[in-house]
Amino acid sequence: MDLAYLWFFIVGVLFVGYFVLDGFDFGVGMSLPFLGKNEVSRRQVINTIGPVWDLNETWVIVAGACLFASFPEWYATLFSGFYLALLLILLALIARGVSFEYRHQRDSLRWKRNFDRMIVIGSALPAFLWGVAVANIVQGVPLDADHEFVGSLLTLLNPYGLLGGLTTLLLFFTHGVYFVALKTDGQVRTDARALAAKSGILTVVVAAVFLVWTVANAAGGGAPLLMLVIACAVVAAVLLIASIVANRRDREGWAFGFGAGTVMFAVLTLWLALFPNVMPSTTDPAFSLTIENASSTDYTLTIMTWAAVIFLPLVLLYQGWTYWVFRKRVTRAHIEKAAETVH
User: Fold this and answer.
1) CB 267, CB 208: distance < 8 Å
2) Whole-number mean pLDDT of the chain?
3) CA 215-218-220 angle, 5° bins
4) 195-209 pLDDT, tens per residue?
5) Where exactly are the transmembrane stretches of this chain (predicted)?
């Protein structure tokens, strides 16, 4: 296999990892107003991702770095054309990270509530904008002969892009609520299961429309590719329904696992729908960025391949170890005991 094509899928895998891991982080943050009915429950919700949120976020850095090195033309067009949307995502991620670290620095209720709002906004905005960005990449954007984006932020806010943003918002929200149910006890766990049952139904409806639209967009890619796109979309739909069923049967671990699988196959559906382009042009198909004309040299890709073979397994092992260490539930009794110790 040509190394450029290999790296197209490696970058896709890295973004899958990011959306699966930081996706439930976003969902946990967005669930705070619904599940955090008092300070103890809010701390329970936040502490479920306290040890892992920053590690999850590093996946986007790795994915962006690999995109820059393997497809510099794609990186340049994407980050220059989508700079405002990506800047908003960056600011939201900064606000969310600051809030996690500073909300507990004072006992003031107003202080904590302000940072809680930043957590919610800093989770919802990236969850929505990532969907908008990826949907527009798949659908195509106006590019000129020099592969430069000639639209604006409003260009990205088209019906398909907005639907993509709403889909990722709801999908990440439900995925995160599954995680809260898996990692907590007491009333928060009960409320999380009930909330996931409601959000899951809405997610199914919105995601179904988006996946059907995506498959329709991929119809021009040829029969074999279209069949792969349809197969991935069907698997994503089945896993989403399975997660709802598992949640209703109080099987939080299975629900979260099926939710992760849903995100994985949804992203894979979009990635295959994009192939062999990396950024189609709606101005003129001849101006499109493809895997071939956007990739680095074979020498660069060879070095990157060896680096990935050596370091990616180490990263996965370290992340797996981290989740194993922090595998226990965040109990209400533990939060209350910690609060008494502080005071």
Assistant:
1) no
2) 90
3) 135
4) 999 999 999 999 999
5) 6-32, 77-98, 119-140, 160-182, 194-213, 225-246, 253-274, 303-326
